[in-house]
Amino acid sequence: MADPRDEALAIAESAVRALQAAGASDAEATVSIVDAFNCEARDRALTTLERSRGRSIAVRAFAGTRRATFSSTDLGDAGVAELARRAVAAAAFVGEDPHAGLPDGAPSDGVCDHDLFTVADDVAARGDEEKIEEAMLMERLVRDADARVANSDGSRVRSATASWAIANSRGFRGVTQGTSVTRSASPVVHDGEAKRIGHYGTAARGWATAEPAQAVALHAVHRAVALVGARKPPTMRVPVIFERDVAASVLGDVFAALSAANVAVGNSWLADRVGERIGSERVTMVDDGRLRGGLGSSPFDAEGVATRETVAFERGVLRTYLSDTYWGRRLGIASTGNAANGGVGPSNLFLIPGTGTLDDLVAQTERGILIVDTIGFATEHASGIYSRGARGIYIEDGAPQHAVDEFTISSTFPEMLAAIDAVAGDLRFDGTIVSPSFRVAEMQISGT
Amino acid sequence: MITALDPDLLARVLARALRRGGDFADVFYEYRLVQAFRLEDGQIRSASSTIVRGTGIRVVEGERSGFAHSDDIEEDALLRAADAASLIVRDGRRRDAVVALASVQAPLLYEEHADDPADSARYVDLLARADVAARGSDPRVASVNAFVTDELQYVQIADSDGRVVTDRRPLVALGVQVVAKDGTRRETGYAADGGRTSIAIYDGRTPESIALESARIATTKLAAADAPAGEMPVVIGPGGGGVLLHEAVGHGLEADFNRKGTSLYSGRIGERVASELVTVIDDGALEGERGTVAVDDEGTPGSRKVLVENGILRGYMHDRLNARLMGVASTGSGRRESFRVLPQPRMCNTFMLGGSATPEEIVGSIDRGLYAASFSGGQVEISKGDFVFMIAEGYLIEGGKITAPVSGATLIGNGPDALTKVTMVGGDARLANRSYTCGKGGQRVPVGVGIPTVKLASCTVGGNARG
Predict the structure, then answer these.
(1) pTM for the predicted model, two decimal places
(2) Number of domains in chain B
(3) Would you say residue A106 has pLDDT above 70?
(4) Average pLDDT in the B118-147 region?
(5) Do B288 and B346 belong together in one domain?
(6) Which stretch of DSSP H or E encloses residue B349?
(7) Do A448 and B231 touch (CB under 8 A)?
(8) What kind of fold does domain A4-225 have according to CATH?
(9) B405: contact with A, CB 8 A cutoff
(10) How far is CA B197 from the centre of its chain?
(11) Cα angle at B254 between B149 and B167, to 5 degrees?
């Protein structure tokens, strides 16, 4: 079969021509082709096998400073022609917007294609039967690891190769490719009348750098078992330690406030605060689109702007927002290469790690709670309020005492970032927003 | 532009899918056109459209599902996908090809919707009216964002039982987000309305009324105090409070979790799971509602299911796979986000039936507590039933009266536990207007939620007030 990168680029270029033919003054087309494999085993048997090749196109049509966007999975010539016609017609109904337009600067010369090591050779090399065997292996491991494991919600292995191309009417042509793999397991333990599922998964560019199946299965069992017998903690104000996956979800909320799109419309507690000290000395947050092997790495962003390393917080001080071309123009800043489909997205956003392990953080905490999981989406980006349901371990005298659940932790983002007083060294790049474990000196716990 | 697949082609694809054997196969073809406009600060900032066109092919054998999809709908591509899906069959008991396919007409539960979306000017006008209304309502309204979406999904589902079912599903939504500002304080309000109908509904349920509701919530919150923390009686407001029911009870009654034994409700049909005041229904056959399915994504008609009756667990929500494995009939709950993914058992419109109390009696029975008028989101953990909700609009209850607004409040609890603490149920049951979308396994589908005014004798409130 032809190289999907060639196919993607050819369709993108023909879509740009169709948009111009339909009357667009400027045009951009992005085509992605994803080949994916997914299998799931449960109860020591294969349950799901999925294979897919998904193709899609997204275009932007400009009529002067008016703009419309269109996406489709119909990539035939007739489909692309209809898409072009509709997109140009819709642009006429959009208001004049002086900030709308393609990125500034000269287009790159010819086809831009650096892989930044985002393709792992071992993804193409591995056969389907091997992946199925691995899912079955994780099922066996979770069942055998601990007598309390009574059931499973399945173990999954996925892999994908994504190819994408961008072309625009100013002459930019970019094409790139990336691989990704994930392994996950979900053992179930009985806890009195109730059950607890211990989800755990890992993601990486290739099999060699992903956590091995055995480690994923055992970690999932550990998560399920750790919360057995949990009870509500008292309502109190204590230090809270965020285990790294939960810490990453906090960073995800901080990213929303760093996004120029939210800042520009006033839906960010970080609006108008560049240069201010927001976090503690330990808060240095970096977004790096060129990190080798990072899951968010790419030579250029979704509108063809070169990716780069951006320091968003430096020792607690807010240095810049993360932006694409449009929202950057609204705020009067340059794009940071963070255009994502339909808006602003992270590339590889992380908090610079400190030293020591999660256990060290626990040992250094007189009385507090270690959060291993949160539920709910209870954050408000305009006001900066943070409040989520949580599960974890109660700590006293620097030692874990018992599991706790059915409580909330709350604070505000400014207060939380300012109160980060310890950061562990356990950072791993297994997502596009990642964090080491950290401690917040004081948060409100609502329990009994 | 909306094209159907040829029934003979569907029959050939099904035959190919079952070539290695298998209990069942189906082909799900969809063509969906979505038109969306967004207004921001007085200007139409974006117009966007989406076409989703493709086919998903599934082969089922026992508990196993093989699946492949194709955005290319030419015969070669569909046969390749059928081959890929058939690889799930491990012990290859060959079965005969499908008999002739017969068309089945879906019930009519939606207003007629034209193939082509309305003139763009009509959407633009709706948003401009919402913007003017929100801005004019209060000088503290700092920014207004509004969107309108108009969607038509055509589906054609053919299966190895010999049926071809088609359905044309309209879906509209109009939402307004208002940010109100007072000094350095910002608060957000949100309101929306829509359903499986055409944009003609906004002639009656006007964009102005949606905008004013959103502005009222945002400006009310400017005066809000930090929410209290700890256990207290909580009153859930009618309509939008139904999210709590959806999360705390609904998900745990979806058949996949119960077949696998991962839900806390597994194997408990006939048992008491809630106060006798609680009767919970999921209804996919309500005309025009957002969660309605004339047929689900497996071609089964939507239906009314009694999930909990006077506190007793009566049944689960089934798709075909789980129904067959559990020896019952599908309840028309097999739903999928698109042709790219397998169907799952999902809720449609989930609500609690009304009781005999008045809202005033319910609030009047509480000396100190919280009134949750609506929620902005929630989540449940299926295996144990723990839930969390963020209260979008909440108030203190003091001395039997609703008093000061509070912000940043969450409710946290355990579904079955909360249901036993339902001590009063109002007669004011209704479905919420808002445009709820439910996520499960990475798939998002439109749903309806509803509830009457309900008193929980106690629930944990997560707030930031220093107690």
Answers:
(1) 0.92
(2) 3
(3) no
(4) 94
(5) yes
(6) strand B349-352
(7) yes
(8) PmbA/TldD fold (3.30.2290)
(9) no
(10) 16
(11) 45
